[in-house]
Every structure is written in C-alpha cells, then in structure tokens.
Amino acid sequence: MEQLLPQSMERHVDKQKFKLPMKLEAAKSDDDDIPYLTGKLFFDVVLAKSHVNPNYHFQLPVRITREFPRTTIPVVLRYNRKNWNLDYIGNSTNPRFDPKWRKFVVDNKLEIGDACVFELMEHNTTNIKFKVHILRGDLPPELQAAINSRGTMEDPIELD
C-alpha cells in the first residue's frame, strides 16, 4: 500500500488533534476536486468484520464524537463525487452511524482490511459532513489474519 504521509508526520498527526499543517497537501485525485486531507479534523479506521458484515455496525471513536452533539442528526458521507445520507446516533452510550451505513459499504464494495479516512468537512448542531477517502486492502497476510480472527466464537476478545 502506498504511503500517504511522510513517516515523520504519521505519529505527529495524532498528537495535533488530527489536524495536518496547512502546507502539507497530497496530490489531487483524478476523480475529485478536493485535495486529499485538507487540514481539517479527521479519523481513520481499518475495516473489520463488524463494519462490513453481517451487522454493518460503525461506532465512531470518542476523539471525534466529542465534537458532535449528543443527539441524532443527519450525516452526509461524500466519496468519489457522490453523497450518502445517513444519521449519526449521538444520544447512545456507543455513538455510531445508523443502519444506512450498510448502503455506503455495499455501494463502494468495501471489504475487511480496507481503510477509510473520514475527514470532517463541516459540522454543527444540525448536521455533519465527512469526505471519505478509501484505501483498498493489500494488507500483509499476518495483519489480515489478525483482523479476520478478532472477536470470533473461537477467539473472543477478553477485557481485563
């Protein structure tokens, strides 16, 4: 998989509340007018079984949900010049996207091991808009096996 950020920036991004310096911009994609990572707040996730099948559950990380109201509000996911409308369920102990997340997964043929970067383009008390960047699989077999085996009946996740 192609490295998108210089190694020196990878961990630095996390420490700066997920903001990139304005001068760091990747090349424009052929199919979108907005440059990759514009310096706005973002989070990323490597998709696991629970994200893509059978229940299509997507819980947002706490570090991003702190920015959102604790209520249900509309969300727009933008990818490849198309929009998907769903809801953010923020009035739950596990803030998440509603079941319409499944349509985004199916329409974009997302699979276990794909990575998504959700860049927060705008948000207020009545709506949220993310630009989504999708990075396709090609993970090393050892990492893919670890992702595939997490939380199964044979190998449950244990909390101390």
Automatic annotation (TrEMBL):
Protein name per the record: B3 domain-containing protein
All residue ranges annotated as the TF-B3 domain in the record: 43-138
GO molecular function: DNA binding
UniProt-listed InterPro entries: B3_DNA-bd, DNA-bd_pseudobarrel_sf, REM16-like
SMART domains according to UniProt: B3
Gene3D superfamilies: DNA-binding pseudobarrel domain
Sorted UniProt keywords: DNA-binding, Nucleus, Transcription, Transcription regulation
A single Gene Ontology CC term: nucleus
Presence of keyword Nucleotidyltransferase: no
Organism: Sesamum radiatum
PANTHER family on file: B3 DOMAIN-CONTAINING PROTEIN OS06G0112300 (PTHR31391:SF64), B3 DOMAIN-CONTAINING PROTEIN OS11G0197600-RELATED (PTHR31391)
Protein location: Nucleus
